[in-house]
Write a structure and sequence with these properties.
The protein has about 220 residues and is of the alpha/beta class. The chain has five helices and 14 strands. About 25% of the residues lie in helices and about 25% in strands. The two termini are about 20 Å apart. The model has no long low-confidence stretch (mean pLDDT about 95). The structure holds cytidine-5'-monophosphate (C5P). The site of cytidine-5'-monophosphate has 15 residues, from helix 3 and strand 9. Cytidine-5'-monophosphate binds next to helix 3 and strand 9. Its cofactor is FMN; Mg(2+). This is Coenzyme A biosynthesis bifunctional protein CoaBC. Keywords: Decarboxylase, Flavoprotein, FMN, Ligase, Lyase, Magnesium, Metal-binding, Multifunctional enzyme.
């Protein structure tokens, strides 16, 4: 290694869903395939970066030249991200479950005469916000994603302010967009100053390459 525009840089990426156990055989999850996050990790490695990919459960192969750490839960993802710092650039593309069952049981919950069990939920840590707001070891460039079904720009601007990241990559995942699980993505880039840049619909690999090229410029030399 040593060649490429990101040579000598450490890029940290989260990707995929998280699984939050209800009991040993059941979990709460969401529809993330991990395709976009994995493509970003691969593109960064191609650009010469040292890449750590913290991935939830996905059915994708590990991208070549990338250090992959597989986790199940949001809490494990946060701990793994913290352990991987410092990084020059952090891209949080994982679709982290917002909530987890408050009391995952060690034994399988059985069907019974009392009807379905209630599942109390508690909030998961917000990995993007936690890392964006660190006072020690905050990566100089922190990128979040925003999967929205409506008012994409408005929500993305609010998200930058709330979480404290530097850039949001927003995409429209409303029914019919085909983004979830698909191979193509239509994204908007929203910066801290609120400026919006609209990209055409592209393969997720191409979105990844363009994003890595942009991050290379933003990270400076
Ligand atoms: O708030 P929302 O989930 O829409 O924000 C999406 C962004 O925040 C993504 O970059 C996602 O990876 C990140 N996130 C996170 N930890 C959470 C929830 C979201 O890192 N618990």
């Amino acid at each position: 290694r040593g060649a490429g525009p990101l040579a000598g840089r450490h890029l940290l990426v989260t990707s995929g869903p998280t699984h939050e156990p209800i009991d040993p055989v059941r979990y709460i999850a969401n529809r993330s395939s991990g395709k976009q996050g994995h493509a970003i990790a691969a593109a960064a490695a191609e650009a010469g970066a040292r890449v750590t990919l913290v991935s939830g459960p996905v059915s994708l192969p590990d991208p070549p030249g990338v250090t992959v750490v597989r986790v199940e839960t949001a809490r494990a993802m946060l701990a793994t991200v913290e352990a991987a710092l410092p990084a020059d650039i952090a891209v949080f593309a994982a679709a982290v479950a917002d909530w987890r069952p408050a009391n995952a049981t060690d034994e399988k919950i059985k069907k019974g005469p009392d009807g379905p069990p209630g599942i109390a939920l508690v909030e998961n840590p917000d990995i993007l916000a936690t890392v964006s707001q660190k006072t020690v070891n905050r990566p100089p460039l922190v990128v979040g994603f925003a999967a929205e079904t409506h008012r994409v720009v408005e929500h993305a601007r609010a998200k930058i302010a709330r979480k404290g990241c530097d850039l949001i990559v927003a995409n429209d995942v409303s029914a019919g967009s085909g983004v979830m699980g698909g191979d193509r993505n239509t994204v908007l880039l929203i910066g801290r100053d609120g400026a919006v840049e609209t990209w055409p619909t592209l393969d997720k690999d191409e979105v990844a390459r363009r994003l890595v090229a942009r991050l290379t410029v933003l990270a400076g030399t």
